[in-house]
């Protein structure tokens, strides 16, 4: 199904979209049910992403990438998530894990890690812990300086690409007494002594994505792997989340678009009372509402991505708005898509029940939508106090 507007995508973005469509239709659709059922990690599709140069999208050219443009990544993520939001997460979960390096690392760290990621090495972002979710400053993992290295102890929870990634950006407390100002970020590689993997989660949706515990037991990391300096970890985390939320927004947008397409197609084919069900105004109006929400979400997500690409610094509010609106849209549109398909929608032979399960996480991770509204609200009040409006 074509959009009525192409939203002024560049030639490169149209090309990225086409590559992702081909991978989606040819490689993802035939196996997505299997990965959803088994929760296995889709290694061969990740290989296809790498062969199609998709890991280069979020890396600047000087480090072997294609430019590092947010809008390019948004286009790729949206298109892939039309087919499977869990499989696609291996790609932009790597984007999330890479952001602390991209945004805050020194030149030597960038040269050491970014070219590997551009070639398709998976990365992961490790902030969350059992008691540090929305309260990101509640991290208990510690990093104690010992000579030329830091010794990490603690457990990270629900880490996307956990166990599959080679490169991890990890938040640990170098001074717990200082709260948010005592957090620091480290780059830790798989295989580092004292770094192992714990429980693999059994999830409601995005089941093809690996979500796993990271366990650090006297894990020694060279001081050259500290990002930005001691005590700067909370800033690294916040900058990272500001920059990555448009990807979650794009994921939600892709899920919603995918569900809308299935619902519209089905409504033309399914006949009841001697006519296609789309001939019933009640159902047509439902489809119209779904389509309006998807287009409105797309407009906001693209606007946000372009705003970020303009070099704007005050991206928190826009990024939170895009993530929040697109994920609420995905939940609502996928639920309505199941309704359009009725009993068939509830069955696993159609993909909409899976899309509904996949949509739910977009309202929760990378900051719940309550946190997003908190960020948006506080920014609004700050702007008003500064006389912005
Ligand atoms: N960019 C840069 N710096 C930021 C920032 C941002 N977007 N937001 C806050 N900061 C800075 C503040 O300026 C402050 O710095 P100083 O200590 O130097 O003054 C510091 O960070 C603490 O800020 P604040 O007091 O606002 O932090 P809060 O504890 O109130 O937390 C929220 C703010 C709730 C927004 C934050 O904890 C958050 O985003 N939580 C959700 C985390 C999340 O998304 N978890 C999901 C798992 S990660 S996939």
Instruction: Let me know the largest β-sheet.
Output: 4 strands, mixed
Strand content: 15-25%
**Average pLDDT reading:** 97
Q: How many extended strands?
A: 10
Structure description:
With 389 residues, this protein is α+β, with helices and mostly antiparallel strands. It has 11 helices and 10 strands. The strands form 3 sheets. Strands 1-4-5-8 form a 4-stranded mixed beta sheet. Strand 9 and strand 10 form a beta hairpin. Helix 1 runs parallel beside helix 4, helix 4 packs across helix 7 and helix 5 packs antiparallel against helix 7. The longest helix has 37 residues. The two termini are 40 Å apart. 50% of the residues are buried. The mean pLDDT is 97. Coenzyme a persulfide (COS) binds next to helix 7 and helix 11.
Task: Map the helices and strands.
Elements: H1 11-28, H2 32-38, H3 43-51, H4 70-83, H5 85-104, H6 107-118, E1 123-126, E2 142-146, E3 149-160, E4 167-173, E5 183-189, E6 195-200, E7 211-222, E8 226-227, H7 233-269, E9 271-272, E10 275-276, H8 281-309, H9 316-346, H10 352-362, H11 369-385
Parallel strand pairs: 1-4
Antiparallel strand pairs: 2-3, 3-7, 4-5, 5-8, 6-7, 9-10
The structure holds coenzyme a persulfide.
Coenzyme a persulfide binds at residues 127-128, 133-134, 136-137, 180-181, 234-235, 238-239, 241-242, 316, 365-367, 371, 374-375.
A few lines on this structure:
The strands form three sheets. Strands 1-4-5-8 form a four-stranded mixed sheet. Helices cover 53% and strands 15% of the residues. The chain has 389 residues and is α+β, with helices and mostly antiparallel strands.
């Amino acid at each position: 199904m074509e959009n009525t507007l192409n939203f002024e995508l560049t030639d490169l973005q149209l090309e990225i979209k086409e590559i992702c469509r081909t991978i989606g239709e040819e490689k993802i659709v035939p196996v997505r049910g299997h990965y959803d059922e088994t929760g296995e990690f889709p290694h061969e599709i990740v290989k296809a992403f790498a062969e199609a140069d998709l890991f280069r999208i979020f890396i600047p050219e000087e480090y072997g990438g294609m430019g590092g443009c947010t809008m390019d990544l948004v286009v790729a993520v949206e298109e892939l998530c039309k087919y499977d939001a869990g499989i696609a997460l291996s790609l932009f979960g790597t984007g999330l894990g890479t952001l602390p390096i991209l945004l805050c690392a020194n030149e030597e760290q960038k040269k050491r890690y970014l070219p590997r990621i551009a070639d398709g090495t998976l990365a992961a972002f490790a902030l969350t812990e059992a008691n540090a979710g929305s309260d990101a400053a509640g991290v208990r993992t510690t990093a104690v300086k010992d000579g030329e290295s830091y010794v990490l102890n603690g457990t990270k929870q629900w880490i996307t690409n956990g166990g599959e990634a080679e490169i991890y950006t990890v938040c640990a407390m170098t001074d717990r007494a200082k709260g948010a100002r005592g957090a620091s970020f480290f780059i830790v590689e798989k295989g580092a002594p004292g770094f192992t993997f714990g429980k693999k989660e059994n999830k409601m949706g995005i089941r093809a994505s690996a979500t796993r515990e990271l366990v650090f037991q006297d894990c020694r990391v060279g001081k050259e792997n500290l990002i930005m300096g001691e005590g700067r970890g909370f800033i690294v985390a916040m900058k990272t989340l500001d920059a990555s939320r448009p990807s979650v927004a794009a994921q939600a947008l892709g899920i919603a678009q995918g569900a809308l397409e299935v619902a519209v197609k089905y409504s033309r084919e399914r006949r009841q009372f001697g006519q296609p069900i789309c001939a019933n105004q009640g159902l047509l109006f439902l489809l119209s509402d779904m389509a309006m929400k998807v287009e409105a979400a797309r407009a906001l997500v693209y606007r946000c991505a372009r705003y970020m690409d303009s070099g704007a610094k005050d991206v928190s509010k826009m990024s939170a708005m895009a993530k929040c609106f697109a994920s609420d849209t995905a939940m609502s549109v996928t639920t309505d898509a199941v309704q359009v398909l009725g009993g068939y929608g509830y069955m696993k032979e159609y993909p909409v029940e899976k899309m509904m399960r996949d949509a739910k996480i977009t309202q929760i991770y990378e900051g719940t939508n309550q946190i997003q509204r908190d960020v948006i609200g506080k920014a609004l009040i700050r702007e008003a106090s500064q006389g912005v409006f």
